[in-house]
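job 3f2a | input accepted
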Amino acid sequence: MPGRDEDVAIAATQAGAVVVRARYGAALTRLEKSGGDFATSADIEAENAILDVLRSARPGDAVTGEESGRTGADSAAREWLVDPLCGTLNYAVRNMLVAVNVALRADAKITVAASADPFTDEVFWTDGTHAYVRRDGVDEPLKPSAESRLVDVNLDPPFPNAPRFQAARLLADPGFVERFRPRVVSTTLAVAWVAAGRRAAYVTDGDLRDSVHFASGIALCQAAGCVVTGIEGQPLHTGVGGLVVAADRQTHAALLTLVDNQFPPEAGATQVRLALDGTTGSAGGDVTYDSSVHGPDLISIGS
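job 3f2a | predicted structure (303 res):
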């Protein structure tokens, strides 16, 4: 029986990954959901395998599964977030780009998380402080890198900031084309890849608080030392929401500039982002500095 919470998360994702791998290529029952979304019988079976591990190891905790919803006591202080098969559409057409995600939220914070790739037999995991990838029972620290210049952009709905911001427009921005190479894999496995140095960055719109899809990937990136903010550079889960996660501050700053090209300027203020290169400067008017934002500093200069 797993002892530490991170061991429970790893065991749960591995249990789900076994099912996903075994059912790949088989005839699947399709279960329609709202908004044109759907699940398959593999999603259901993988979630059940994950829930068996969690209920056995942590019977007093609540669980929210993508397919089964929330179970457990309403008063539970701890809640597991489960996405049994992220990339269902990929999987249904026999594409192996999928992930199995499990995260634990305690006291409004993700404390441990794991994201498994069923087809490489890798588990990306964090204890909330450090981040690793496990292959063949051996753990290696995750090391973000922007060297690839590959930026994954999520083009799946919802798009709460449309029409002001649409991630698809990034792909046609000359500044994006000049600096980066776009990728669209349609699974949050790509978020874990930023932590692992296999992507330079990831961008998506949406309200991601307590998301069963994104909780694990975000926790991995934070523990690995990535720059993680909302799409306007604001603290995560505030303001307009969304996610920009990058391997380093320079990549993050460049992406925020591209995102800013889509947002109209705020009345009465100009937002200037200064890269953290040690330079200093001054400006007239009232200046406010938000040091809580990861990545580039935000300075609002009042008119």
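job 3f2a | DSSP finds eight helices and 18 strands in the chain.
job 3f2a | closed
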